[in-house]
Amino acid sequence: MIALIQRVAQASVRVGERITGEIGPGLLALVCAERGDTEADADKLVAKVLGYRVFSDAAGKMNLPVTNLDGAGRAGGLLLVSQFTLAADTDSGLRPSFTPAAPPDEGQRLFDYFVATARARHPIVETGEFGAAMQVSLVNDGPVTFWLRTRG
């Protein structure tokens, strides 16, 4: 599985006129399941997203995770948005191939599992809507962006 995480001051996702998820300081994670991914891959990726140290400590070093973004135990928000295009094969030609992405039904199952697992481990989890045309707004803090991937 893949997650593109961005440290944000705020972020939201909208489907049509409806806001489906909105957070203050925290992480926006664009999440993609690839062919062959399993729940074990999702478990590893959730742990990595929640534990990845991208927030500054008192010394100004990136040393704090979203679960403790101020060093005093305050959790930041986690906005999860499905994005199958992260699995694109861009090696040849001028048009991406999405063959590496999980089929839609499997992608949705793994994304839903990812969200449920994150909600069981973190108090502030918002989401987009799988398969919908979404408008994602964010204020990238830094900017700080990381590509995370887990595989078997």
UniProtKB/TrEMBL annotation:
Gene of origin? dtd
Q: Tell me what this protein is called.
A: D-aminoacyl-tRNA deacylase
**What broad class describes the main subcellular location of this protein?**
cytoplasm
Q: Name one GO molecular function term.
A: Gly-tRNA(Ala) deacylase activity
UniProt note: domains: A Gly-cisPro motif from one monomer fits into the active site of the other monomer to allow specific chiral rejection of L-amino acids.
Taxonomy of the source species: Bacteria, Pseudomonadati, Pseudomonadota, Betaproteobacteria, Burkholderiales
Would you say which domain of life the source belongs to? Bacteria
Record note on quaternary structure: Homodimer.
Per the UniProt record, one Pfam family is Tyr_Deacylase
Q: Which organism is it from?
A: Trinickia fusca
Q: Which family, according to UniProt?
A: Belongs to the DTD family.
Subcellular compartments: Cytoplasm
- Say yes or no: keyword Metal-binding present: no
